[in-house]
Write a structure and sequence with these properties.
The complex is a heterodimer of chains A (386) and B (315). Chain A has 386 residues and is mainly β. Chain A is 3% helix and 54% strand. Chain A has one domain (2-76, 88-198, 239-384): Porin. Chain A has helices spanning 119-124, 281-284; strands spanning 2-9, 29-42, 45-54, 60-72, 88-98, 129-139, 142-149, 169-181, 184-199, 208-211, 225-228, 237-254, 258-270, 289-301, 305-315, 321-323, 328-330, 335-346, 349-359, 363-364, 370-371, 377-384. In chain A, strands 1-2-3-4-5-6-7-8-9-12-13-14-15-18-19-22 form a 16-stranded antiparallel β-barrel. Chain A has a two-stranded antiparallel sheet with strand order 10-11. A two-stranded antiparallel ribbon of chain A has the order 16-17. In chain A, a hairpin with a 5-residue loop joins strand 20 (363-364) and strand 21. Chain B folds into 2 domains: 41-159, Immunoglobulin-like (Sandwich); 167-198 and 221-314, Sandwich (Jelly Rolls). By secondary structure, chain B is mainly beta. A 6-stranded mixed β-sheet of chain B has the order 2-7-6-10-11-4, with no helix packed on it. In chain B, strands 15-16-12-18-19 form a 5-stranded antiparallel β-sheet, with no helix packed on it. In chain B, strands 14-13-17-20 form a 4-stranded antiparallel β-sheet, with no helix packed on it. Classes of the chains: A mainly beta (386), B mainly beta (315). Chains A and B meet through strand 19 and strand 20 of A and helix 1, strand 4, strand 6 and strand 7 of B.
Chain lengths: 386, 315
């Protein structure tokens, strides 16, 4: 359970979004996530069902995980038990499952030293979970997972947990977990996704008349009535999308202090944004190339303290251009966040204080060019696991 | 020993975080998010800056300003404003003299007949609460370095379109809901959205009167009856007006009037607080107020529907 107190956020306004009616104030108390999970195990068969309740967009309860799995070996071996040395394992899963891509998407909410995932992870895999089938296995230091999913994660803006097109997305990750020396280990992986997105067609429209009171006299004059012809329906279309990602973590166990983790991840993608600025190459007339990366570290300080820092950048349209007065010029649409976090661990609770220095290109400078919008935030989170 | 080490580490971490917090407080750069809803002037597609527009900083000049109307109604939405800026301009800053803040719009491509002069297009809206009177619209050109040029002023008048008549029944409300005014006159005729006038032509055959074959009605004959002027937020097509009036321009029949408030839809709003005012020859003679909630949207919405707000007798 994550309960946040957003103590300060620069972009907050005591207004409503005119298009959605959603409050623009973010300085508030919010139940970010409350997960309730049930598991069942019968030898080789396991099941899990998990629901999430939150108040991010008003009180909401939704399923986030519903899995049925078949695993081999049938159950995990106890330490020292015969068979403990088995060098491989495999699991086949069907249901609403976590997408196997990269490191951040798979990172547990209760283990992450930062409030949320990086911007690109939330844009590409909003909600992390998608419906489909997954096969994952391990052999010695090698880990691999591949999944066939709808391609519409539960946090997607357009069709969450639904699938308007019959084609499926293929996504997977191959990784290694290598102990380099006694206190040092390297975890790294290569991820890829290939799939199909959906562009909605439009229904037909009828002829209409529109009135605009051009001369402000409050009366309908013949010249102020405009004929707007109807248009026939347009068909829906599909488009291709893909992603390629690299992730690496270096884990160092420092004596007397605790674990140091250095982390980095980069993703190149095309038409994959489903959570921040949904990509629709049919509407834009060109493919949208996206790029996101993050680097950071977190350091344990004894049993109860942990601190970390992470910098992430996400560009939803690497080729973006804008019309300047006399020419078309490239424009940087990047979202970035520099996050500083302090974690106090008092099992079964954690308290996080995070300071986010947010840079995004949603503002406009005095010269009319896009600039960053002030959006720094200070958030305090209480977490309980029971 | 271990405890002292951890305590030292903790103090160090807190110092680093506090120093970082102070640093970030100073470097939250960029522009502020501000919808500028409390400003008298708003510009479609513009970014609001809650500060006085800078004076002349040696920037480019404004070549032309075209405010298509010199008289704007308080509450007007998206009235055209366009113009041209001198070469090198990248934005236009638009404000009201003595007004709150200013709006920035990026410069657009030049017109074909003046290829060196960037243009700007900025539909302007005037807040409904703006007092009538003369105003000056200031436009400044800004260059790529953010330097503002000398302001160019254009005068215009803000007017308020008041509803006048012998008898005026006004319904206004505070949220973007769809409310309907129903007024029943002494003859029992109900004036509402689907029957917006109580005027009826005289029966055919009345000698020498309009309605007789060959005798057309006067163009303004409908002013003899009570007329509904507007169906605001009809079908939840939000127009921002939130006011409806039934007006008897010439004479108001003597007798009992009923005023009802119907609520076809709250359009997603929680409630709508409404206010009914009746004016007779310029004097307020009756008022009523109430709140429409979800229960008021149930049932049919037709003649006879709605909550009775007030009844009055006109002598």
């Amino acid at each position: 359970m994550h309960v946040d107190a957003v103590a300060y956020r620069q972009s907050s306004q005591d207004e409503l979004d005119p298009s959605t009616g959603a409050p623009l104030n973010e300085t508030r108390f919010v139940l970010r996530r409350g997960h309730l999970r049930a598991d069942v195990e019968r030898d080789a068969v396991t099941g899990a069902f998990e629901i999430d309740a939150n108040t991010v967009k008003g009180p909401t309860v939704r399923p986030i995980r519903a899995e049925v799995s078949l695993r081999w070996p049938a159950r995990a071996r106890e330490p020292g038990e015969a068979g403990d040395a088995r060098e491989w394992s495999a699991t086949a899963t069907l249901g609403l499952l976590r997408t196997p891509f990269g490191f951040e998407v798979a990172e547990l909410d209760t283990a992450r030293p930062f409030l949320e995932r990086s911007g690109f992870a939330r844009a590409f895999f909003p909600g992390e979970f998608d419906l489909g089938a997954r096969l994952q296995g391990r052999w010695r230091f090698l880990h691999a997972a591949i999944a066939l999913v709808n391609g519409h994660p539960i946090g997607e803006l357009a069709y969450p947990a639904r699938d308007p097109a019959h084609s499926k997305d293929l996504v997977g990750r191959v990784g290694v977990e290598v102990p380099i020396a006694a206190p040092v280990a390297l975890h790294a992986g290569l991820s890829a996704l290939s799939g199909t997105g959906f562009h909605a067609g439009t229904p037909s429209t009828k002829d209409t008349l529109a009135f605009h009171d051009d001369n402000q006299n409050g009366l309908v004059d013949p010249s102020e009535i405009q004929f707007i012809p109807g248009s026939p329906a347009t068909p829906s279309e599909t488009f291709g999308r893909f992603a390629l990602g690299l992730d690496a973590r270096l884990l160092v166990r420092l004596p007397r202090v605790g674990r140091l983790q250095l982390r980095g991840e980069i993703v190149w993608a095309k038409n994959l944004d489903r959570g921040l600025e949904p990509a629709d190459p049919v509407a834009t007339g060109r493919d949208l190339r996206e790029r996101g990366w993050s680097i950071g570290f977190d350091q344990e300080l004894g049993a109860h303290l942990q601190l970390g820092m992470r910098y992430d950048r996400y560009d939803p349209d690497v080729d973006a251009r804008r019309q300047a007065p006399t020419q078309v010029v490239p424009v940087d649409r990047t979202y970035s966040t520099l996050a500083y976090t302090l974690v106090v661990r008092l099992p079964p609770t954690r308290f996080l204080v995070e300071l986010d220095h947010v840079g995004n290109a949603l503002g406009r400078g005095a010269n009319g060019a896009p600039t960053t919008l002030k959006d720094d935030a200070l958030t305090i989170r209480g977490e309980a696991v029971f | 020993m271990r405890a002292r080490f951890l305590a030292r580490r903790t103090r160090l971490v807190l110092r680093v975080l506090l120093a970082t917090a102070g640093l970030l407080g100073a470097c939250g750069d960029g522009s502020w998010a501000d919808a500028g809803r409390d400003a008298a002037l708003s510009v479609k597609g513009g970014s609001f800056v809650r500060a006085d527009a800078p004076g002349d900083q040696g920037g480019p000049t404004v070549a032309s300003v075209d405010l298509s109307l010199t008289t704007l109604r308080a509450g007007v939405v998206d009235s055209p404003l366009r113009g041209a800026l001198s070469p090198g301009s990248t934005a236009a800053a638009i404000s009201l003299a003595e007004g709150l803040g200013y709006w920035l719009v990026p410069a657009d491509i030049p017109a074909a007949d003046a290829p060196d002069y960037p243009t700007f297009r900025a539909p302007v809206s005037i807040a409904a609460t703006t007092a009538p009177g003369p105003y000056a619209l200031r436009v400044q050109a800004v260059d790529a370095a953010g330097r503002f040029g000398p302001p160019s002023s254009t005068s215009f008048q803000v007017v308020r379109v008041d509803v006048t008549g012998t008898l005026v029944v006004t319904l206004s409300w505070d949220s973007e809901a769809d409310l309907d005014l129903h007024v029943v006159d002494p003859a029992g005729t109900e004036i509402w959205t689907h029957a917006p006038s109580s005027w009826r032509p005289s029966p055919p055959g009345t000698p020498g009167t309009p309605g007789t074959p060959g005798t057309p009605a006067a163009p303004d004959a409908s002013l003899d009856g009570g007329n509904l002027d507007f169906d605001s937020n009809a079908g939840c097509a939000i127009d921002g007006r939130r006011q409806e009036d039934v007006v008897w321009t010439r004479t108001a029949p003597s007798g009992l009037y009923l005023v009802r408030v119907d609520t076809p839809s709250l359009c997603g709003q929680v409630a709508a607080r409404w206010h009914v005012v009746v004016s007779l020859r310029g004097e307020v003679v009756a008022q009523a107020a109430g709140t429409s909630g979800a229960t008021d949207t149930r049932g049919p919405h037709q003649a006879g529907s709605g909550l009775l707000a007030l009844q009055l007798v006109v002598p």
